[in-house]
Design a protein that fits this description.
binds zinc ion, oxidoreductase activity, about 60% helix, iron ion binding, membrane, 16 helices, single chain
C-alpha cells in the first residue's frame, strides 16, 4: 500500500493527497535514458506520447484507486465541486460515474446530453482537467474515427472508381508515415493548448454549465464559425503559397499530391497553429465580441470542422457527395484539385471565395476564368460601339 501511496502522490494533484507528499527530485539518469537520448528518430514522438498520454489518465487512475481502497476514496468535502451546475443540494454522495449520472438524471429540465455532460464534470471534480481531457479526447477520437472509413475504402477495389486520382492509392507505408507525423503534431503542438482552454473559457465567459443554449443558438454559432473559418483559411492558405512561406512551411502539407484522409492535419507546426487559429481562435474572438458561447457548441464545431477537413482530403468523389446538394459546399473534389495542381482552390468549406476571386484550380477553373475574360472583353467592346 505504501507503494500505491507514493505513486498516487506523484500522479495526483488533489490537495489532501499532496499535503504530505515528499519532495520529488529530478529523475536519476539511467542506462535506458542514455540509450533513448541517442535515438536519432522517434525520440520526441515517444517522449511526448508518454507524457501527454499519462497526463489525461491521472483522473482515471484516481478513480481506479478509489475503488480498490477506501483509504483513497475522496470524501465530497475533499473534492472540489464542479461549477457545471448551480445547485447540488438534492444530490447524494457517490464515487462512480453512474452515481454522478443518477444525480443529474433526477433533473427533469435537462436532456440526456446535458445530463451526461453535467455528470462528467461532476464526476471529474476538476473543471480544468475535465475540459482539457474532453477537448483532447474529442479531437483524437473524432479525427481518427473519421479517417478510418477512408483508410478501409482505400483497400476495397470496388471504390476505386470513385477515387478522384484513381491511379494514386496511398500505400501502407505512406499511411503509416503520415499517421506517425500527425500523432507527433497532435501531442507536441495541439495537445498542449487543450490543458489551458478551461482557464481561457472562464476568463472570456465561455459557459460550460448545464443546461445548454437552445439548438437554434447552437446552429447559428456553428454557421457563423463555418463562414468565418472559411474566410480565414482562404486568405492565410493563399498567403502560405507565396515564396518562402510555401518553401519553409506549407510545402510539407503538399507532400501528397493525391491526398487521403489522414493527410488533413499533416502539416508544419506553424501551419497547424496559423490555420488552427481559424478553428479555435474564431470562437474565442466571437465570445469576446458577443459574450455568447457554450463549450458544448465549441465541441460540436471542432467535430464538424474535423469531419470537413478529413473528408476534403479523402480523395473520393461520390454521386451522393454533399456539394451535389449544396453547390457552394467545397468537398473533396475542390481540395483534391488544390493538391493535384498545387495552386488555386484555397478555401476550406465553401467555394465562394475561389469563385469570386477567380482562384479555382484545374482545367475547369481555367475555363471559367477564360470565359469571364471573354465576357468582359465583349462587354467592353459593346460599350465602345
Ligand atoms: Zn496549399
Ligand atoms: Zn490539404
Amino acid at each position: 500500500m505504501s507503494v500505491n501511496c507514493t505513486i498516487l502522490r506523484r500522479l495526483v494533484c488533489h490537495p489532501h493527497l499532496e499535503r504530505n507528499a515528499p519532495a520529488l527530485g529530478p529523475p536519476r539518469p539511467t542506462k535506458r535514458s542514455r540509450h533513448v537520448s541517442r535515438a536519432p528518430s522517434g525520440f520526441w514522438f515517444w517522449i511526448s506520447s508518454c507524457s501527454f498520454i499519462s497526463f489525461p489518465l491521472v483522473p482515471v487512475r484516481v478513480s481506479f484507486f478509489h475503488h480498490i481502497s477506501p483509504r483513497f476514496r475522496l470524501s465530497p468535502s475533499s473534492m472540489s465541486l464542479s461549477s457545471v451546475y448551480h445547485d447540488y443540494s438534492s444530490f447524494t454522495n457517490g464515487t462512480t460515474f453512474a452515481d454522478a449520472y443518477s444525480n443529474f438524471a433526477q433533473l427533469p429540465q435537462l436532456n440526456v446530453l446535458e445530463k451526461i455532460w453535467g455528470a462528467y464534470y461532476y464526476y471529474m471534480g476538476n473543471d480544468v482537467f475535465a475540459t482539457g481531457l474532453l477537448f483532447f479526447s474529442v479531437h483524437e477520437f473524432m479525427y481518427f474515427f473519421r479517417c478510418l472509413p477512408w483508410a478501409i475504402i482505400d483497400r476495397i477495389p470496388y471504390f476505386n472508381k470513385y477515387k478522384i486520382q484513381e491511379t494514386k492509392l496511398p500505400s501502407n507505408q505512406e499511411q503509416w508515415e503520415c499517421l506517425k507525423s500527425v500523432l507527433t503534431s497532435h501531442f507536441l503542438v495541439e495537445a498542449f493548448p487543450c490543458w489551458f482552454f478551461h482557464p481561457v473559457c472562464k476568463k472570456l465567459g465561455i459557459s460550460f454549465e448545464v443546461p445548454f443554449p437552445s439548438w437554434t443558438t447552437i446552429c447559428f454559432h456553428l454557421a457563423v464559425f463555418f463562414v468565418l473559418e472559411d474566410a480565414w483559411h482562404y486568405w492565410f492558405h493563399r498567403g502560405l503559397h507565396y515564396g518562402v512561406f510555401y518553401k519553409y512551411i506549407h510545402k510539407q502539407h503538399h507532400r501528397y499530391a493525391a491526398p487521403f484522409g489522414l493527410t488533413a492535419e499533416y502539416a508544419h507546426p506553424i501551419e497547424v497553429m496559423l490555420l488552427g487559429f481559424g478553428t479555435v481562435g474564431i470562437p474565442i474572438v466571437w465570445c469576446m465580441l458577443t459574450g455568447s458561447l457554450h463549450l458544448f457548441t465549441v465541441c460540436l464545431w471542432i467535430t464538424l470542422r474535423l469531419f470537413q477537413a478529413v473528408d476534403s482530403h479523402s480523395g473520393y468523389e461520390f454521386p451522393w457527395s454533399l456539394h451535389h446538394f449544396l453547390p457552394f459546399w467545397a468537398g473533396a473534389d475542390h481540395h483534391d484539385e488544390h493538391h493535384h495542381y498545387f495552386i488555386g482552390s484555397y478555401s476550406s468549406s465553401f467555394r465562394w471565395w475561389d469563385a469570386v476571386l477567380n482562384t479555382e484550380a484545374g482545367p475547369a477553373g481555367k475555363a471559367k476564368r477564360e470565359q469571364k475574360m471573354k465576357s468582359r472583353a465583349e462587354m467592353a467592346q459593346k460599350k465602345q460601339i
